[in-house]
Amino acid sequence: MQGGDPYRQVTIAYIAEQAGVSIPTVSKVINGRSGVGAQTRARIETLINEYGYRRPEPAGRADIMELVMSDLESMWGLEIIRGVERTAREQNVGVVLADFDQRDDETRGWVEQALARRPNCVVTVAQLTQAQRDQLTARSIPFVVFDLASELQDDTPYVGATNWLGGRSATRHLLELGHRRIAMISGPDHVLCCRARVDGYRSALEAAGVPVEPALVRRVNLCHEDGRTAGHDLLRRLDRPTAIFTANDVLAIGVYRAAREEGLRIPEDLSVVGFDDLPVVSWVDPPLTSVHQPLREMAATATTLALALGRGEKPAQTRIELVTTLTVRQSTGPPPPERR
């Protein structure tokens, strides 16, 4: 292994010799096939990473990238798909859309299929485990994480948005309208982008000298029905809030429904702010004030970054956050006089 580029001299036979296994066993690991014990697989993958083995590219390999998602039916997901597909098409690259939930068998199946397809790169919206990310790295398949939902290693490429600033700007808007009892319905605390939005909400309240009331912060699943349930719970309080900020637009639409079922008008009795600014929120009645998260631009940026990494380029920036902005519509106004 002396002289020249040592990584170019590494062969499957050499990896097999160092691991103390057969060449077919190493081949199975490289190609993502089953039939290899977990400890043996881990040992081989460690050696692949250590020696920098790179499988020779097959002639005529399809020029494709992979988009991995766990929720294809949501409006949020459709915006991402559009951004990825448009950018890939501009660069003459096909997109394989992989859908899986968080079950172990479903995830394992995707990893094996992806390794067999050998895409140029991966953009992952679904939350891959560290082991799955290691498998992609071991096969020299670069990946970019879309939105920061969980802790990542410092060198993991990702594209996200300024969630903290978005939470702060939404809350400041409500404070400037005169609201002081501002509730927040957020997603699970382990989802980092939701936690950042809550932190921005708290920061704005503290800067305005308004106490943060834990009872006015609810953490639920990011779905319409949970927004409705949390909305009912908050609006039935004797000291109900005059405004509710939600961690996404779907939760806000759930709050709309709860408010109407409680006999409250938006914005006369209750102001509501969402997050994402999906196209549908300009059609609801009244149109929703929302923090604009540039989902299509984020998806395009993630795709451009992933394709560059797939070509072996070294971009100056691999951890990118796009700016959020507040889009004010008719769902927010001053608090009712009797509750100011």
Structure description:
This protein is an alpha/beta fold. The chain has three domains: 6-51, lambda repressor-like DNA-binding domains (434 Repressor (Amino-terminal Domain)); 64-160 and 296-321, Response regulator (Rossmann fold); 163-294 and 326-339, Response regulator (Rossmann fold), CATH 3.40.50.2300. Helices cover 41% and strands 15% of the residues. It has eleven helices and twelve strands. The strands form two sheets. Strands 2-1-3-4-5-11 form a six-stranded parallel β-sheet, sandwiched between helices. Strands 7-6-8-9-10-12 form a six-stranded mixed β-sheet, sandwiched between helices. Strand 8 (243-246), helix 10 (249-261) and strand 9 form a beta-alpha-beta unit. It starts with 11 loop residues before the first helix and ends in a 13-residue tail after the last strand. Mean pLDDT is 86; it is low at 1-8.
Average pLDDT score:
86
Helix amount: 40-55%
Question: What best-fitting shape do the alpha-carbon axes yield?
Answer: elongated
Alpha-beta classification: alpha/beta
Sketch the topology as an H/E string, one letter per element: HHHEHEHEHEEHEHEHEHEEHEE
Largest sheet: 6 strands, parallel
CATH topology term of the largest domain? Rossmann fold
Radius of gyration: 24 Å
CATH C-level class of the largest domain is Alpha Beta
Assembly state (oligomeric): single chain
Low-confidence stretches: 1-8
Task: Please tally the helical runs, counting DSSP H or I stretches of 4 or more residues.
Answer: 11
Q: N-to-C terminal Cα separation, in Å?
A: 76 Å
Please give the CATH architecture of the largest domain: 3-Layer(aba) Sandwich
Provide the number of structural domains.
Answer: 3
- The strands making up the biggest β-sheet line up spatially as 2-1-3-4-5-11
Query: Beta fraction of the residues?
Result: 15-25%
